Structures are given as C-alpha cells and as structure tokens.
Amino acid sequence: MARTVDQKRYAERREAILSAAYRQFATNGYDRTTTAAICREAGISSGTFFHYFPTKLDALVGVLLAGVETTRGELQRITAASPGLAAVLNYARVWEKDIGDEHFGGFAGAVGGLPLEPSVAAALDAESSLIAQFIGHHLATAKKQGELRDDVAVETLSTWTRWLMDGAAHSAVQGEASSGELSVAISALLSAR
Amino acid sequence: MARTVDQKRYAERREAILSAAYRQFATNGYDRTTTAAICREAGISSGTFFHYFPTKLDALVGVLLAGVETTRGELQRITAASPGLAAVLNYARVWEKDIGDEHFGGFAGAVGGLPLEPSVAAALDAESSLIAQFIGHHLATAKKQGELRDDVAVETLSTWTRWLMDGAAHSAVQGEASSGELSVAISALLSAR
Amino acid sequence: MARTVDQKRYAERREAILSAAYRQFATNGYDRTTTAAICREAGISSGTFFHYFPTKLDALVGVLLAGVETTRGELQRITAASPGLAAVLNYARVWEKDIGDEHFGGFAGAVGGLPLEPSVAAALDAESSLIAQFIGHHLATAKKQGELRDDVAVETLSTWTRWLMDGAAHSAVQGEASSGELSVAISALLSAR
Amino acid sequence: MARTVDQKRYAERREAILSAAYRQFATNGYDRTTTAAICREAGISSGTFFHYFPTKLDALVGVLLAGVETTRGELQRITAASPGLAAVLNYARVWEKDIGDEHFGGFAGAVGGLPLEPSVAAALDAESSLIAQFIGHHLATAKKQGELRDDVAVETLSTWTRWLMDGAAHSAVQGEASSGELSVAISALLSAR
DNA sequence: CATGAATGAGCCTTCATTCAT
DNA sequence: AATGAATGAAGGCTCATTCAT
C-alpha cells in the first residue's frame, strides 16, 4: 500500500517538475533556464530536483519524451476515428491548436538552439518519425481512395504536408496567428481537383 | 590616405569577426558560444573584439544585419531579372541553396532559442518583412497575369508560400535534404491548373 | 536540533566573511579589494561568498550595518551609565579608541571614496543619525543641568561636537595620534566656565 | 616665438586635462574614473593624455599639486593682509567656501579611498603641512597678543582648530551646509574670555 | 526522501597602457 | 605632437552539481 502511495506521489512530483521545467525552458531557453528557477517554480529544493533528474539535460529529455507520449495518444485517437485524408486534416487541426499555445514557440526555440545532444536528438526524432509515419500511412490510404492529386508521388506529398505544418509552426512562433488556415492549405495542396 | 587604408582595414577586420561569430553561433548556439572562441577563430584579442562589438549580442545583431543586406541584394537582383511567379520560384531556388548551407540550421536555431531581445527581433523582422513583401509583390503581379489558381486569395497564397519555405528550412535543419523540390512544391500549390 | 546548529554555523561564517571583508576594504579600499581576496582571507570559495553576499557591495553594506549595531550597543550602555555631558565625554573616549584602530582609517576612506550607492548611504546615515541623536539628547540634559556654556545654542554645540569628533577621526586617519585629547577638547569647547 | 606659443599651448592643454580629471575624480572616485572618460571630457585622444600624464596616477598627483599651489597663494595673501587670530579666522572662511564647492567632497573621498601611494601621500602632506604651519604661526602670534585662552597650550589649540576645520569639511561632504559657522566655532574655542 | 549550503570552473566585460601611423 | 586601434590581464559573478545532515 505504502508502495502505491509512494509511486503516486513520485509520479505527481515528477509531473510537477516536468511542467515547471517546460514553462521555464519555453520562457527563457534551455541555457538561460537555471535549475534553481525550475526548483523555485516547482516548489522543491535543488537536492530534490536531482533525485528526479540527475542533470538539467535529463529534465529536458523528460519534457520531450512526455510530449512524444502525448502525440502518440493523439495520433492513435485520430487514426481510430478517421482514416485517409480526413485523418491528416484532423491532425493538422490539432497541430494548429498546439502551436497556438503560448509556450510552444519558446520551447521549440529552446530545443532548436541546442547543439544536438544524442538524447535530445533521439527524442526529437521519435516525435517526428511518429508524425511522418502517421502522415505516410494515411496518405497512402487516401491515394488508394482517389482522394489525392495524381501528378505527384505520395512520398513527396507527405514531405510537402510536413513542410506546411512546420512552416505554420514557425509562423506561430513569430506571433502570426493563422486560425484554421493550415488544414485548408494542406487540402488545397493535396486534393484531387 | 591613411584614412582610406584604415577604413578598409577596419571593414575587413569587422567582416572577419562577423564571419567567425557566424560560424561559432551556428555550431554551438548563442549562449554556448564564448567570446573567447570567436576571438580565437578570428585571430584577434578579446580587447579587439569589444573594440568592434561592445557586447556579444552586438556581434549577433551584426551577423543578422549583414544577412539582411545580402538578402536585400538577392531580392533586388531577382526582381530585376524576372517578374511574377517566376521571381518567387527563382528565389525559392536561392533559398533552397541557402538552407542547404552547413551552418544555416545551427545559426537559425541559435537565434530562435533567444528570449527575443529587441535588437535581435528588429533584425529578424527586417529580414522576414523583406521576403514577405517580395513574395506579396510578385504574386500580385502573377495574379494579374493569370498565373495563379483562382480559388484562393493572393494574401493567403503568400502566407502558404512562406510556410513551405520555412518548412523546407526546418527540414534542412533536421538534415533532410530536399534538392530542387521546394520550387516544385510552391509551383504545385500556387499554379492555375 | 540540526536547525540550531545550522543557524549557528551560518552566523559564524557570515561573521568571518564580514570580518575578512572589513580588513580587506580597510587595507586596499573598496574598488581594489577583490572578492577573491576576501574569500582567501575568510577561507571560503567564491561560490560560498556569493551564497552569503550576492554582490561585493552587499558585503560592504553588511560590514556597515554590523558597525551600526555595535555603535547602537555602545550608546545604550553609555546612556544607561551616565547622563548629560559625562555621557558625551565618555563616548568621545570610546570614539577615540575606535579611530585609533589600525583599520579604521582605511575603512573610512574606502567608504568615502564611493559614489554614494543608496544602500551605502542609508547605512552611513543610520550610523550618524544614531550619534547625532545621542549627542543632542545628552547635551540637552546637560543644558538643563547648567553644565554647558550659555552663549551658544545647544544645537550648535551638538554640531561643533561632531565636528571635533570627525576632525579627530580625520587626524587619526592621517596617522597623527591624539591620545585622550578629544574629550578634553570637547569639554573645553562646551563647558560653562 | 614658436617656442613661446608651444609652451602656452602646452600649459593650456595640461590645465584642461587637469580640470577634466578633477571633475571626473570628484564625481566617480579615482578607481572608477577611466582615462577614457577624462579624455572625452577634455576633448583629447588617449594618446594625447599619455603625452601629458604617463599614468592615471600622475594625473591625480597633478591635480593635487595644483591644489597645493592654490592653497599656498591663499595663505600668503591672508598672511599679508592680517596677522594673528584674524588670519586664522579669515582662512576658516575661505575654507568654508572651498568645502562648499560641489566637487570638493567627491574629490576628497576619491583621494581618501586610495591605498596611500607615496606620491599621493607626499602631495597630501605638502598641503596639510602648509596649513598646519600657517595656523601654528598665526596662533603663536595671537598668543603673544593675548588673543587666546590661557588654559591650553598653543600647539594643542592648533590641533583643535584643524579638527574643527576637518570636521566641518566632513559635514560638508555629507551634504550638511554650515554657512559661516566654522569661524564662529573656532573663535569660541580659542578666544580668551 | 528531502534539504540547501558549498564548491569552483568558466564567462563576459573593462580599461590602463602601448605603438604604428 | 596627436591619434585611436590593439592588447590581454584581471575581476565580479553565475550556476550545475555534490553531499552532509
């Protein structure tokens, strides 16, 4: 029983630290975020921080991997609900909401500025692979169903779709809002006409 | 006479420092780049560095503004050579070459990770405004000439074009090459069919 | 328990740093005192120094405020022991001993040379107000008891008394000893004859 | 002829640098005054500064020695005009005006904060010896003329007089004005009653 | 588990002085 | 004489990490 309580307490605290770290990284960038600031925001001591994450980089990787899990869940949900082009467009809408988050841009920048540490690169790769695979899979289905234009290979269309998503994300970081436009753009680019 | 020599010498040295700073920022990120490393790479002393750039941030802004001038030159050249859709596609090819540069990605990340200092933001704005204006101008011309699809407003097409460019840049940063594809994608997205 | 020990240890260490800082400031002046020198003299690391005093200026203010407390204590002791003119003369003797200290002059100079930072000015004000009030209070009593000359207002006599004290301090800084003369001078200036 | 012009030009420029240095030292203290700031205020280049004063310390000594000359002149003037106690009181009035100068305090502090360099100490000594000798001489005369109290030795009265002057100077530095009071205090302390 | 005092390497920046022109 | 670019040593301060309690 105690074990159960401990594990719950442990998980909650870990979550709290991750959340604090995310906000700090997003606001100040990785290098300018001090572990002390994370501790303060999470309401813990520096020693405690160390219990959960041996190094600052571990905390960043933790945030990143948590993001991967969230993404995985969203993709699964969407896959279950709608196949083909609709799935991709639905995810574009989710994406658009994510990149509109006040912290998204800062966090993306914080990570981008890093000389790619292997563990960070791995987490980043995991996330983008997940998405690339999702798009590839559903566009292949869409192709079979004749939903896509015919003059360009599916693989190329997948790449272009990701470009639009990343580009929209970049715009969002610059503070240019673009509500609802992304899925329209993707549709315009991919659809058979 | 001495004046002429001095100014030339001054400009050359400034250029050399800027170049060294660019490579360092690109490789290690802004915060992890030490002024000592820039000095070493430029072959100058720390005192000389601060003679040219009072602070590390000033050096970054210097790099950025030099980039703006380069971009301005390229855009003028292209504008003079080809109007309308062709101009945009031509710049897309230049862009594709730029983002393929081994340092481009690192430098973009280095800048992105910064809590936007006003001077940095201003330089960044100057560059993107230049490009946005260029694209807007030439797409408007293209519209008049019937080169563009009719179902989407020109302003929207401009935004989508920038999305594709930024997205391709992001891909390049991730190390995914995309030789020649960008202009094809833009053409596919914009062209009247 | 641990708490008690910690607080004691903390206070002792703080005291040791303050003491080292005092000697350094007195010997070399504020600007020429390096935090490294204070650390060396106190036997601590640079990090520890900043754990106790975030900036070098904070250490100076700490020294100053500790001095204010010492002065407050002396004045209270003297006030309790002897009222009127005697109290002032007794404090003059304490003052004479203080300014004879080998470090007094240097420290006074170190502080005087500073472009008055608000926090330094405040500490300095606190000390001189304490003394001015003490002198004013006891001379007023002396006046009532007919111990003072009658041709000059009490407030003026207070000022003059402080002038003699400050002047004697200045002499001491210049290395001119003046054992026991200050209280005689004050007495000669103030007494009813 | 050219020689005369050169010498005049040299002297004027030296004067200008000294004046700029004085204001800078007074405003910011010796250590915090940069040679660059002195150059800027004097309207010269760093190289020129070096022609006149090989080191920053030399500039300070220059300022100090110029002050000694000024003081010497004042004392001679007063000595010629009035002997005995009157001379001392007259100089007290001059002193009071000097210490009221907006830069006096700062400059005094700037010098006081220095770890006594021999050349600085020498200049300071020269000035205070001048004054001590002046006071000693005129009080001896006053003694003979029966202008002084009888219960204290002349040497002691000289010391006390300097204490009052230094103390008043200290008050002035602290920003407490004391117009006209100093000579009254000295008179009250010294006079036969 | 939790705490927070302690460490010390490393960074940006300043500035007196030199010297080629 | 005058200039101002160049130097480089030195200093205050930060912060990730450790460890005794």
What does this structure look like?
The structure is a homotetramer of 193-residue chains. With 193 residues, the first copy, chain A, is an all-alpha fold. Chain A has a domain at 58-190: Orthogonal Bundle (Tetracycline Repressor, domain 2). The first copy, chain A, has nine helices and no strands. The first copy, chain A, starts with a helix and ends with a helix. The A-B interface holds A 27-32, 106, 108-115, 128, 149, 151-152, 156, 159-160, 162-171, 173-174, 178, 181, 185, 188-189, 193 and B 27-32, 106, 108-115, 128, 149, 151-152, 156, 159-160, 162-171, 173-174, 178, 181, 185, 188-189, 193. The structure holds a DNA duplex (21 and 21 nucleotides).
Helix and strand succession of chain A? HHHHHHHHH
Cα(first) to Cα(last) distance of chain A is: 62 Å
For this structure, the CATH topology of the domain at 58-190 in chain A is Tetracycline Repressor, domain 2
Proper CATH architecture of the domain at 58-190 in chain A? Orthogonal Bundle
Keywords:
78% helix, 193 residues, 9 helices, homotetramer, DNA-binding, mainly alpha, Tetracycline Repressor, domain 2
Write the layout of secondary structure elements.
The structure is a homotetramer of 193-residue chains.
Chain A (H helix, E strand, L loop, with lengths): L1 H27 L6 H8 L3 H7 L3 H26 L2 H17 L3 H9 L5 H27 L9 H20 L7 H10 L3
Helix pairs in contact in A: 1-2, 1-4, 1-6, 4-5, 4-7, 5-7, 5-8, 5-9, 6-8, 7-8, 8-9
Chain C binds a DNA duplex (21 and 21 nucleotides) through helix 1 and helix 3.
